[in-house]
Backbone:
């Protein structure tokens, strides 16, 4: 091989998945976060909690479920609390076109 020749090797991560009793080789696909906001919930004691999902890996087994692509998604749920004393925490109010609002006390 000529010493000026470059070789590029693409490493593709695969995983064996069992879907409907069939073992498939699924290829990892990249997931670019486009929008992932915190979901805010008010608890009966006046505190707030917030949750959001963080995707860690996505695999495409190359099959369809009712015509839609079937993906295997590994994820974790992020969780945080907002004590009622922190009423100044800014959240997005649903339907307010992204306008910030204070949490009600």
Residues:
């Amino acid at each position: 091989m000529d010493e000026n020749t470059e070789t590029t090797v693409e490493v593709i991560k695969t995983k064996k998945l069992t879907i409907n009793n069939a073992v498939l080789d699924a290829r990892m696909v990249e997931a670019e976060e486009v929008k992932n906001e915190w979901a805010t919930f008010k608890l009966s004691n006046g505190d707030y909690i917030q949750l959001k999902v963080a995707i860690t890996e996505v695999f495409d087994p190359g099959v369809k479920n009712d015509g839609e692509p079937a993906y295997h998604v590994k994820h974790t749920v992020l969780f945080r609390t907002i004590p009622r004393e922190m009423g100044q925490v800014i959240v997005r109010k649903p339907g307010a076109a992204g306008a910030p609002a204070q949490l009600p006390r």
